[in-house]
Design a protein that fits this description.
The protein has one domain: Rossmann fold (3-Layer(aba) Sandwich), CATH 3.40.50. Helix content is 43%, strand content 23%. Strands 1, 2, 3, 4, 5, 6, 7 and 8 form an eight-stranded mixed beta sheet that branches. The two termini are 30 Å apart.
Protein backbone atom coordinates (compact mmCIF):
# COMPACT_ATOMS: atom_id res chain seq x y z
CA UNK A 1 0.00 0.00 0.00
CA UNK A 2 1.24 3.46 -0.84
CA UNK A 3 1.63 5.67 2.25
CA UNK A 4 -1.37 7.90 2.60
CA UNK A 5 0.72 11.03 3.11
CA UNK A 6 2.40 10.72 -0.30
CA UNK A 7 -0.87 10.03 -2.08
CA UNK A 8 -2.66 13.16 -0.95
CA UNK A 9 -1.98 16.58 -2.37
CA UNK A 10 -1.81 18.68 0.78
CA UNK A 11 -4.00 19.22 3.81
CA UNK A 12 -7.07 21.37 3.40
CA UNK A 13 -7.27 24.24 5.87
CA UNK A 14 -10.31 26.23 4.72
CA UNK A 15 -13.02 23.63 5.29
CA UNK A 16 -16.04 24.54 7.36
CA UNK A 17 -16.43 21.94 10.13
CA UNK A 18 -19.36 19.57 9.78
CA UNK A 19 -20.90 17.47 12.55
CA UNK A 20 -21.97 13.84 12.38
CA UNK A 21 -23.84 13.85 15.69
CA UNK A 22 -26.94 15.71 14.52
CA UNK A 23 -30.33 14.00 14.80
CA UNK A 24 -30.72 13.86 11.02
CA UNK A 25 -27.30 12.23 10.58
CA UNK A 26 -28.01 9.64 13.25
CA UNK A 27 -31.48 8.87 11.89
CA UNK A 28 -30.44 8.40 8.27
CA UNK A 29 -27.17 6.62 9.09
CA UNK A 30 -29.04 4.16 11.32
CA UNK A 31 -31.64 3.61 8.58
CA UNK A 32 -28.85 3.13 6.01
CA UNK A 33 -27.15 0.56 8.23
CA UNK A 34 -30.41 -1.33 8.83
CA UNK A 35 -31.26 -1.36 5.11
CA UNK A 36 -27.79 -2.60 4.19
CA UNK A 37 -28.09 -5.38 6.76
CA UNK A 38 -31.21 -6.59 4.94
CA UNK A 39 -30.34 -5.89 1.33
CA UNK A 40 -26.85 -4.44 0.92
CA UNK A 41 -24.04 -6.12 -0.99
CA UNK A 42 -22.75 -8.02 2.04
CA UNK A 43 -26.25 -9.37 2.79
CA UNK A 44 -26.68 -10.45 -0.83
CA UNK A 45 -23.32 -12.21 -0.89
CA UNK A 46 -24.20 -14.05 2.31
CA UNK A 47 -27.35 -15.23 0.54
CA UNK A 48 -25.19 -16.54 -2.29
CA UNK A 49 -22.58 -18.04 0.06
CA UNK A 50 -19.81 -15.88 -1.44
CA UNK A 51 -17.05 -13.68 -0.06
CA UNK A 52 -16.64 -10.09 -1.17
CA UNK A 53 -13.37 -10.87 -2.92
CA UNK A 54 -15.03 -13.68 -4.88
CA UNK A 55 -17.52 -11.12 -6.09
CA UNK A 56 -14.99 -8.42 -6.91
CA UNK A 57 -12.59 -10.79 -8.65
CA UNK A 58 -15.43 -11.68 -11.03
CA UNK A 59 -16.61 -8.10 -11.33
CA UNK A 60 -13.77 -6.99 -13.63
CA UNK A 61 -14.88 -9.41 -16.34
CA UNK A 62 -18.47 -8.17 -16.04
CA UNK A 63 -17.38 -4.54 -16.38
CA UNK A 64 -15.44 -5.39 -19.51
CA UNK A 65 -18.45 -7.13 -21.01
CA UNK A 66 -20.83 -4.33 -20.06
CA UNK A 67 -18.74 -1.39 -21.30
CA UNK A 68 -19.95 -1.74 -24.92
CA UNK A 69 -23.42 -1.01 -23.56
CA UNK A 70 -22.50 2.58 -22.82
CA UNK A 71 -21.40 2.60 -19.17
CA UNK A 72 -20.40 5.07 -17.76
CA UNK A 73 -21.56 7.20 -20.68
CA UNK A 74 -23.07 10.49 -19.58
CA UNK A 75 -21.91 9.94 -15.99
CA UNK A 76 -18.30 10.27 -17.10
CA UNK A 77 -19.19 13.44 -19.01
CA UNK A 78 -20.62 14.96 -15.82
CA UNK A 79 -17.45 14.12 -13.91
CA UNK A 80 -15.22 15.55 -16.64
CA UNK A 81 -17.12 18.83 -16.47
CA UNK A 82 -15.83 19.25 -12.91
CA UNK A 83 -12.09 19.05 -13.61
CA UNK A 84 -9.31 21.03 -15.31
CA UNK A 85 -5.92 19.89 -16.63
CA UNK A 86 -4.28 20.86 -13.31
CA UNK A 87 -6.92 19.14 -11.14
CA UNK A 88 -6.31 16.35 -8.66
CA UNK A 89 -9.02 13.78 -8.01
CA UNK A 90 -9.57 11.39 -5.12
CA UNK A 91 -11.50 8.39 -6.52
CA UNK A 92 -12.95 6.37 -3.63
CA UNK A 93 -13.78 2.80 -4.58
CA UNK A 94 -12.08 3.20 -7.94
CA UNK A 95 -12.56 -0.43 -8.97
CA UNK A 96 -10.87 -1.30 -12.25
CA UNK A 97 -10.60 2.34 -13.26
CA UNK A 98 -13.87 3.17 -15.01
CA UNK A 99 -13.43 6.81 -13.99
CA UNK A 100 -9.80 6.88 -12.82
CA UNK A 101 -8.27 5.92 -16.19
CA UNK A 102 -10.05 8.51 -18.39
CA UNK A 103 -9.54 11.15 -15.70
CA UNK A 104 -5.80 10.44 -15.55
CA UNK A 105 -5.54 11.04 -19.29
CA UNK A 106 -6.70 14.62 -18.89
CA UNK A 107 -5.79 15.86 -15.38
CA UNK A 108 -2.74 16.21 -13.16
CA UNK A 109 -3.21 13.30 -10.74
CA UNK A 110 -5.68 10.67 -9.58
CA UNK A 111 -5.48 9.00 -6.18
CA UNK A 112 -7.49 5.78 -6.35
CA UNK A 113 -8.73 4.15 -3.15
CA UNK A 114 -9.62 0.49 -3.81
CA UNK A 115 -9.90 -2.22 -1.11
CA UNK A 116 -10.19 -5.26 -3.41
CA UNK A 117 -6.77 -6.74 -4.27
CA UNK A 118 -8.03 -8.13 -7.58
CA UNK A 119 -9.63 -4.83 -8.59
CA UNK A 120 -6.55 -2.85 -7.56
CA UNK A 121 -4.29 -5.23 -9.50
CA UNK A 122 -6.47 -4.84 -12.59
CA UNK A 123 -6.32 -1.04 -12.28
CA UNK A 124 -2.56 -1.10 -11.73
CA UNK A 125 -2.04 -3.21 -14.86
CA UNK A 126 -4.37 -1.01 -16.91
CA UNK A 127 -2.60 2.17 -15.78
CA UNK A 128 0.79 0.69 -16.66
CA UNK A 129 -0.46 -0.53 -20.03
CA UNK A 130 -1.88 2.94 -20.77
CA UNK A 131 1.33 4.63 -19.57
CA UNK A 132 -0.47 6.63 -16.88
CA UNK A 133 2.04 7.12 -14.05
CA UNK A 134 -0.15 9.85 -12.53
CA UNK A 135 -2.45 7.32 -10.83
CA UNK A 136 -1.62 6.45 -7.21
CA UNK A 137 -3.41 3.33 -5.95
CA UNK A 138 -4.09 2.75 -2.26
CA UNK A 139 -5.39 -0.71 -1.37
CA UNK A 140 -7.60 0.12 1.58
CA UNK A 141 -11.15 0.64 2.73
CA UNK A 142 -12.06 4.32 2.95
CA UNK A 143 -13.20 3.67 6.52
CA UNK A 144 -9.67 2.58 7.45
CA UNK A 145 -8.34 5.90 6.18
CA UNK A 146 -11.01 8.00 7.87
CA UNK A 147 -8.81 8.66 10.90
CA UNK A 148 -6.16 10.28 8.69
CA UNK A 149 -6.03 14.04 8.38
CA UNK A 150 -8.00 14.82 5.21
CA UNK A 151 -6.10 16.60 2.47
CA UNK A 152 -7.23 18.72 -0.41
CA UNK A 153 -8.20 17.34 -3.79
CA UNK A 154 -10.06 19.48 -6.27
CA UNK A 155 -12.63 16.74 -6.76
CA UNK A 156 -13.55 13.84 -4.49
CA UNK A 157 -15.51 11.15 -6.34
CA UNK A 158 -17.35 8.10 -5.02
CA UNK A 159 -19.12 6.29 -7.86
CA UNK A 160 -21.27 3.31 -6.84
CA UNK A 161 -18.91 2.71 -3.94
CA UNK A 162 -20.83 3.71 -0.82
CA UNK A 163 -20.48 0.43 1.07
CA UNK A 164 -19.67 1.96 4.46
CA UNK A 165 -21.73 1.24 7.58
CA UNK A 166 -20.97 4.60 9.19
CA UNK A 167 -22.20 6.70 6.28
CA UNK A 168 -22.08 9.99 8.18
CA UNK A 169 -18.40 9.63 9.10
CA UNK A 170 -17.49 8.45 5.59
CA UNK A 171 -19.22 11.40 3.93
CA UNK A 172 -17.84 13.86 6.47
CA UNK A 173 -14.28 12.84 5.61
CA UNK A 174 -15.02 12.97 1.88
CA UNK A 175 -16.40 16.48 2.23
CA UNK A 176 -13.38 17.60 4.21
CA UNK A 177 -11.04 16.27 1.50
CA UNK A 178 -12.82 18.14 -1.34
CA UNK A 179 -11.50 21.65 -1.97
CA UNK A 180 -13.87 22.33 -4.89
CA UNK A 181 -16.41 19.54 -5.29
CA UNK A 182 -17.64 16.31 -3.75
CA UNK A 183 -19.45 14.17 -6.31
CA UNK A 184 -21.34 11.01 -5.40
CA UNK A 185 -22.92 8.65 -7.92
CA UNK A 186 -25.45 6.31 -6.35
CA UNK A 187 -28.37 4.28 -7.58
CA UNK A 188 -31.85 5.76 -7.91
CA UNK A 189 -33.37 2.53 -9.24
CA UNK A 190 -33.23 0.02 -12.07
CA UNK A 191 -35.61 -1.93 -14.26
CA UNK A 192 -35.34 -5.26 -12.43
CA UNK A 193 -35.95 -4.06 -8.88
CA UNK A 194 -39.73 -4.54 -8.98
CA UNK A 195 -39.41 -7.99 -10.55
CA UNK A 196 -36.87 -9.13 -7.94
CA UNK A 197 -39.16 -7.94 -5.16
CA UNK A 198 -42.34 -9.35 -6.70
CA UNK A 199 -40.88 -12.75 -7.60
CA UNK A 200 -38.47 -13.38 -4.74
CA UNK A 201 -39.15 -10.79 -2.03
CA UNK A 202 -35.68 -9.25 -2.51
CA UNK A 203 -35.60 -5.67 -1.30
CA UNK A 204 -33.39 -3.23 -3.23
CA UNK A 205 -30.43 -1.76 -1.43
CA UNK A 206 -30.52 1.78 -0.01
CA UNK A 207 -30.87 4.41 -2.71
CA UNK A 208 -29.51 7.93 -3.12
CA UNK A 209 -31.91 9.49 -0.61
CA UNK A 210 -29.83 8.13 2.27
CA UNK A 211 -26.54 9.90 1.40
CA UNK A 212 -28.50 12.96 0.32
CA UNK A 213 -30.17 13.32 3.73
CA UNK A 214 -26.98 12.50 5.61
CA UNK A 215 -25.24 15.31 3.73
CA UNK A 216 -28.10 17.62 4.65
CA UNK A 217 -27.65 16.55 8.26
CA UNK A 218 -23.97 17.40 8.01
CA UNK A 219 -24.93 20.95 7.07
CA UNK A 220 -24.11 20.61 3.35
CA UNK A 221 -26.31 21.75 0.48
CA UNK A 222 -26.27 18.83 -1.95
CA UNK A 223 -27.66 19.17 -5.46
CA UNK A 224 -29.18 16.18 -7.29
CA UNK A 225 -29.31 15.30 -10.96
CA UNK A 226 -30.89 12.04 -12.14
CA UNK A 227 -29.37 10.34 -15.18
CA UNK A 228 -31.07 7.38 -16.87
CA UNK A 229 -29.25 4.95 -19.12
CA UNK A 230 -30.94 2.31 -21.29
CA UNK A 231 -29.12 -0.61 -22.85
CA UNK A 232 -29.29 -4.27 -23.86
CA UNK A 233 -27.37 -6.84 -21.82
CA UNK A 234 -26.68 -10.45 -22.73
CA UNK A 235 -29.30 -12.28 -20.67
CA UNK A 236 -26.94 -15.10 -19.70
CA UNK A 237 -24.37 -12.56 -18.48
CA UNK A 238 -27.08 -10.74 -16.51
CA UNK A 239 -28.21 -13.97 -14.85
CA UNK A 240 -24.60 -14.79 -13.97
CA UNK A 241 -24.26 -11.42 -12.24
CA UNK A 242 -27.52 -11.92 -10.37
CA UNK A 243 -26.31 -15.24 -8.98
CA UNK A 244 -23.65 -13.23 -7.14
CA UNK A 245 -25.66 -10.12 -6.32
CA UNK A 246 -28.42 -10.32 -5.08
CA UNK A 247 -27.63 -14.05 -4.84
CA UNK A 248 -30.27 -15.77 -6.98
CA UNK A 249 -30.34 -19.55 -7.17
CA UNK A 250 -30.30 -21.36 -10.51
CA UNK A 251 -34.04 -21.99 -10.16
CA UNK A 252 -34.70 -18.32 -9.44
CA UNK A 253 -32.64 -17.32 -12.48
CA UNK A 254 -34.79 -19.58 -14.63
CA UNK A 255 -37.94 -18.03 -13.16
CA UNK A 256 -36.63 -14.53 -13.85
CA UNK A 257 -35.68 -15.51 -17.41
CA UNK A 258 -39.20 -16.78 -18.07
CA UNK A 259 -40.67 -13.64 -16.51
CA UNK A 260 -38.53 -11.37 -18.68
CA UNK A 261 -39.58 -13.28 -21.80
CA UNK A 262 -43.26 -13.02 -20.86
CA UNK A 263 -42.96 -9.26 -20.29
CA UNK A 264 -41.34 -8.59 -23.66
CA UNK A 265 -38.05 -7.60 -22.04
CA UNK A 266 -35.93 -9.97 -24.16
CA UNK A 267 -34.73 -9.29 -27.69
CA UNK A 268 -33.55 -12.30 -29.73
CA UNK A 269 -30.60 -11.44 -31.94
CA UNK A 270 -29.04 -14.34 -33.83
CA UNK A 271 -28.29 -16.88 -31.08
CA UNK A 272 -28.09 -14.30 -28.30
CA UNK A 273 -30.88 -13.26 -25.94
CA UNK A 274 -30.58 -9.58 -25.01
CA UNK A 275 -32.30 -8.20 -21.93
CA UNK A 276 -33.62 -4.65 -22.10
CA UNK A 277 -32.33 -2.77 -19.06
CA UNK A 278 -32.61 0.74 -17.70
CA UNK A 279 -30.65 2.27 -14.83
CA UNK A 280 -31.21 5.60 -13.13
CA UNK A 281 -28.35 7.08 -11.16
CA UNK A 282 -28.31 10.12 -8.93
CA UNK A 283 -25.38 12.52 -9.17
CA UNK A 284 -25.13 14.23 -5.80
CA UNK A 285 -22.93 17.30 -5.92
CA UNK A 286 -21.62 19.31 -2.97
CA UNK A 287 -19.53 22.41 -3.53
CA UNK A 288 -17.95 23.56 -0.26
Amino acid sequence: MQPIASAYSGRRTDVNPVRTDTAVCREWTDAWRARRTRSGLEANLRRAGLTQEQFWSRYASWVGALQPNGYPGGLLDRVMERVRPDSTVLDIGAGTGTFALPLARTISHVTAIEPSPSQAAHLRDAAEHANLPNISIIESLWEDLACEEPAAHNLVLAAHSLQMDDLALALQRMYEAASECLLLIHTAGHSLSEALHELFGIEPGPDYLYPYHVLRGLGCRPQIELVTRECHVDLDLQLDILQYNPGLSAAQCETLSEYAESQGMVLHQDDVRLLRRSYTDALITVTP
